[in-house]
Design goal:
The chain is 36% helix and 15% strand. The protein is an alpha+beta fold and 808 residues long. α4 packs across α11.
Length: 808
């Protein structure tokens, strides 16, 4: 027979709860009984509101968003409320089923309250259970009570009132009446209330004619109407929630598998948003999304907030017109259909303008997408962050590297100049190379090869950290990026890039980018207010060195011309362009001390543009805007970089001389300085650096080619510090014959010379402020070419010399 085991008294005793826990549970039970009794008595006393209140109640006051003056209203979140009440039988069964499936699956079974759902929401919100914090576990009935009958107070008593009123409402009114009230009062975004108005607004049809896919979209919206808006930036999230609605309907058996599949794949067309009176729509929705994340959608939609933003609407209007005109021209000339622009006050971080597309209401270009928040590759606009990092490590603007076709991948031989993976040998934009060049001229003329070398010297992780310090948040994993980072290999946003450049404008002091000055509630209480929150994030000397280069019009003249859109006569403006290798993005970033402005042009569908640099496509638009902005926000002089305390003790290769020691031959920078300590002397063995052999090979090739083609010239060895008097051109000599496709080295010297500017055939080709005042250029034209050197002397006077050469 089976053996039965009976627990012994001692074993039973071992499993008894501790006495303190038993007493606690008894006390909790007594409290709950007491609370239940009080609740019953309270419920019997409180008068029951009429169902008519649901249909005729006044809509809560709207949130109003203003520009920085507080006088120009940009947007009334409700405005003139759009709401059309219809009977339940005139609402599509799909809408009813979809809403119940996603909001309250047991709506037809419960009595107004779901204790388990409520408990689950409580546990999530106090952190004892995983889930979406902020979820309420409320039934549809509770939501009707909350919206129509109760105050905005968020207290235990207020929640208890909601539960009891929901229970009583269920006993008094039918499920159909309650669902009808919910569907006619629910907010669907902006001024749209109720499913009839929402159906007309989004689809152009009555609620009774909405199909299954459309119904799923409508049911997806109420959780976060702004975030999920089909006119906003989160269409992917809306698609996911719509599909969740359909999945719930299928799982609950209210639609078939076939209906589910058809609705999931149906291409639903949304009507163009035509809300009247909205100004600066991209900025408005940027601000509104922030408000809803911080205060909740209910507060923003119903509690009458007054929001004073940072927007300068006068400047915004002009920016919108400029972007629209130039974008239409660019579409015709360069196949660039869209553009965006952001301006920020560097001293505060306040957004002054935000133009997210040429036309918010133009669906042919996805105009509602805010391109200032889109992730795009910045091209060479990222280079200043890298050079700044190099300067902080001890390199200087006069550091010389060789701009020559170079293989950077250690997986490939130095003479293998393939650009195919795993090799990496980038070109300059014009596929020409300048030979020895300073960091100053390389950055000013946006040379790619020197920039890649600067990134290696600065370090990828340290350069990304610099970008983060300046406010770039999108470069998450340094291991994802190689040396392509400096040419725009990572994705950023126009808003954050403009914020980063505003830190350069503010001498290295960062003010977080903000869009709001003040938020007040209905009673005038200040909920939040702008406060200065600046902090130094970058060494001032490095910032000033970068600014000095980006504002040096002479240094960039060989690439952009003396009168390019980057130049503002009589103004202190720094600028940097950026073009991605595939011509899908063109950028221009720039700043004065009073304003930072960034602009982007391209196509939202990521199709390529014409093969033109940013100066031709986006810079004219940016220039026109900044001309206007600087009249309202006058610039001041940039703080100049301080003299280097190391002075003449710096390695000469950091002082502008590439021919460091003629007795040892001509070599790349890594031969003369240690990568991570450039001021600490020469490396014991430069070949121990994995990049040295790759960099030095084209230098030795360049030297041999230069010597071979210069039989009529002096030797390529150039004196370190020419100081003859009077001023004269050292190389080339008069009558020299040079090749049109090979670099021509220009040097000069004389007593008291502080800077030399060079011209060939009347065209400015570069400048230098360190002996031997070296500039290396490819001659612009064939035939006789006068080389003119203009020297500025320490006493302020100017002298010049001209020699003739023949370019063939």
């Amino acid at each position: 027979m089976p053996i039965r085991h009976t627990p012994t008294p001692s074993l039973i005793k071992r499993f008894r709860l501790p006495q303190w826990l038993e007493l606690s549970l008894m006390a909790l039970g007594a409290f709950l009984l007491f609370l239940g009794g009080v609740s019953i008595i309270w419920a019997m006393v409180v008068p029951m509101p009429s169902i008519n209140n649901f249909q005729s109640r006044a809509v809560a006051q709207s949130t109003k968003i203003y520009d920085r003056t507080g006088d120009i209203m940009l947007y009334d979140v409700h405005g003139s409320v759009r709401r059309t009440v219809v009977p339940l039988e005139e609402i599509s069964p799909y809408i009813r089923k979809a809403t119940v499936a996603i909001e309250d699956a047991t709506f037809y079974e419960h009595s107004g309250f779901r204790p388990l759902a409520f408990l689950r929401a409580v546990l999530v919100n106090i952190g004892l259970r995983e889930g979406y914090r902020g979820q309420g576990g409320s039934t549809i009935t509770q939501q009707v009570v909350k919206n129509a009958l109760l105050t905005k107070d968020k207290t235990i008593l207020r929640k208890l009132e909601e539960i009891i009123l929901a229970l009583r409402l269920e006993k008094t009114y039918s499920k159909e009446q309650i669902l009808s009230a919910y569907l006619n009062e629910n907010p669907y975004g902006g001024t749209v209330y109720g499913v009839e108005e929402a159906s007309q607004y989004f689809f152009g049809v009555s609620a009774k004619d909405v199909d299954l896919a459309q119904a799923a979209y409508l049911a997806a919206l109420p959780q976060a109407p702004t975030y999920y808006s089909p006119h906003g930036n989160h269409r992917d999230a809306l698609e996911q929630r719509k599909n969740l609605v359909l999945s719930r309907m299928k799982d609950q058996g209210v639609i078939t598998d076939a209906e589910y599949q058809r609705a999931k794949t149906e291409k639903v067309e949304f009507r163009k948003e035509v809300e009247s009176g909205i100004k600066a729509p991209h900025f408005v929705f940027y601000v509104r999304e922030y408000l809803e994340e911080k205060y909740g959608a209910d507060v923003v939609q119903k509690e009458g907030l007054r929001v004073i933003t940072t927007l300068d609407y006068d400047l915004q209007e002009q920016a919108e017109d400029i972007v629209r005109r130039h974008a239409l021209t660019n579409q015709q000339n360069f196949n660039a259909s869209n553009a965006g622009l952001v301006a920020i006050d560097p001293k505060t971080g306040q957004i002054l303008t935000m133009v997210g597309s040429r036309d918010y209401f133009d669906p042919t270009i996805d105009g509602m997408v805010n391109v200032t928040l889109s992730h795009r590759q910045p091209g060479s606009a990222f280079k200043p962050f890298v050079y700044a990092t190099a300067f902080m490590k001890g390199y200087t603007p006069e550091t010389v590297v060789f701009d020559l076709k170079t293989q950077f991948s250690t997986a490939c031989a130095p003479d293998n100049l393939s650009e195919e993976d795993p090799c990496y040998s980038p070109n300059n934009y014009d596929e020409s190379f300048a030979g020895p060049i300073t960091f100053r001229n390389a950055l000013a003329m946006s040379k790619n090869v020197p920039a890649v070398k600067a990134l290696y010297l600065a370090g990828i992780e340290d350069s990304i950290q610099t970008a983060r310090d300046l406010g770039i948040t999108t470069l998450l994993d340094p291991k994802r990026y190689g040396l392509t980072l400096v040419l725009g290999g990572g994705e950023v946003t126009l808003l954050e890039m403009t914020g980063a450049y505003s830190v350069l404008a503010n001498d290295g002091v960062k003010n977080p980018v903000v869009g709001i000055l003040r938020v007040e509630d209905l009673e005038g209480n200040v909920l939040e207010e702008f406060e200065d929150d600046g902090s130094r994030v970058m060494d001032a000397q490095a910032v000033r060195q970068v600014t000095d280069i980006l504002s040096d019009n002479v240094a960039r003249t060989p690439e952009f011309g003396a009168d390019s859109p980057l130049y503002f006569p009589g103004r202190n403006v720094a600028a940097k362009t950026g073009t991605t290798n595939d011509y899908r993005d063109v950028w221009i970033m720039g700043y004065a001390t009073s304003i930072a402005a960034g602009a982007w042009a391209g196509n939202n569908n990521n199709s390529p543009m014409e093969r033109k640099i940013a100066a031709f496509i986006v810079a004219p638009m940016w220039h026109e805007f900044l001309e206007i902005a600087l009249k309202k926000y006058p610039d001041e002089a940039f703080s100049p970089p301080a003299p280097d305390p190391a002075g003449d003790s710096l390695p000469v290769v950091l002082r502008g001389n590439w021919n460091t020691d003629p007795s040892r031959g001509v070599h790349e920078l890594l031969y003369w300085v240690k990568k991570d300590n450039p001021r600490g002397g020469a490396p014991d063995n430069p070949y121990s650096d994995p990049q040295f052999a790759l960099w030095d090979y084209p230098v030795r090739l360049w030297v041999s080619q230069t010597v071979a083609s210069s039989s009529q010239q002096n030797d390529v060895v150039i004196p370190d510090t020419p100081s003859m008097d009077p001023f004269r051109i050292i190389t080339p000599q008069a009558g020299t014959v040079v090749q049109s496709y090979r670099p021509l080295t220009l040097t000069s010297g004389g007593s008291g010379v502080v800077r030399v500017m060079y011209y060939i055939g009347g065209v400015a080709v570069g400048s230098s402020n360190q002996p031997p005042f070296l500039v290396s250029v490819v001659p612009p034209d064939r035939g006789p070419a006068p080389v003119r050197a203009v020297a500025q002397l320490s006493d302020g006077s100017v002298v010049e010399q001209v020699v003739g050469v023949l370019v063939q």
